[in-house]
Design brief:
Elements (H helix, E strand, L loop, with lengths): L11 H20 L3 H17 L3 H18 L3 H18 L2 H17 L3 H18 L2 H17 L3 H17 L3 H17 L10 H5 L12
Helix pairs in contact: 1-2, 1-3, 2-3, 3-4, 3-5, 4-5, 5-6, 5-7, 6-7, 7-8, 8-9
Protein name: Tetratricopeptide repeat protein
Pfam families: TPR_12
InterPro entries: TPR-like_helical_dom_sf, TPR_rpt
């Protein structure tokens, strides 16, 4: 559970507990493939965290809202706004890992909006940060996203190189599901040449599971 703030309308603990419950419901609906219900619950969670003056909780919900909009393609502009706000809040709290994950999400939104070069610039920054943090999964999933951005830009050579590096890391991490997904995407990119990107990063990369105080926003 995320730590509570100091709201004055009702005890902060009550508000934070309600906000976390709404957040969990939002993630359940997301996992069931119901983005509309997910967004509704996440929106209520956001309002409740704000009532509790809990900006750390707010930051996490903003990231989940951005990811849900991104994956469902319901409102990319909203995804961009939410991700940008989350980045600023995580930076203020000194949570470098959550900030980097939010920055990666913003980069993927930019790519989806038709700005793959701007997305790639941010992803290059994320790649450096994940490597400095020793986060191999973050590095691998960012390489995947870089491959998509490169492919969208028509740079098939870089797209293949990034996906091959991602595949190597997923094998190292012993995650067969990700090996299979990456191998499939790599084969598609090789076959498509410089055509339009055919997929987006699955949800687990950007927003796997509810954030917890001990390990906020962990993948």
């Amino acid at each position: 559970m995320l730590p509570g703030g100091t709201g004055d309308r009702r005890p902060a603990r009550d508000l934070t507990g309600r906000a976390n419950a709404l957040l969990d419901l939002g993630l359940v609906h997301r996992d069931r493939g119901d983005p509309a219900a997910s967004l509704a619950h996440l929106g209520r969670a956001l309002a409740t965290f704000r009532s509790a003056d809990d900006e750390y909780g707010e930051a996490h919900v903003l990231r989940f809202l951005a990811a849900t909009h991104y994956h469902s393609r319901t409102d990319l502009a909203a995804a961009r706004r939410h991700a940008t706000r989350a980045i600023g809040l995580f930076r203020r709290f000194g949570d470098g890992l959550a900030e980097t994950r939010s920055l990666r999400l913003l980069a993927m939104v930019l790519t989806a909006e038709g700005r793959p070069r701007a997305g790639a610039d941010l992803l290059d920054r994320c790649l450096v940060a994940f490597r400095e943090q020793g986060d191999l999964f973050g590095e691998a999933s960012t390489l995947w996203a870089l491959g998509e951005a490169a492919h969208e830009s028509g740079d098939t050579v870089r797209a293949i190189a990034c996906l091959e590096q991602a595949l190597t890391l997923f094998r190292r991490l012993d995650v067969p599901l990700w090996e299979t997904r990456t191998r499939t995407r790599l084969a598609a990119v090789r076959g498509e040449g410089a055509g339009p990107a055919g997929g987006s990063l699955p949800a687990i990369v950007t927003d796997a599971g509810p954030p917890r105080a001990s390990s906020p926003g962990s993948d």
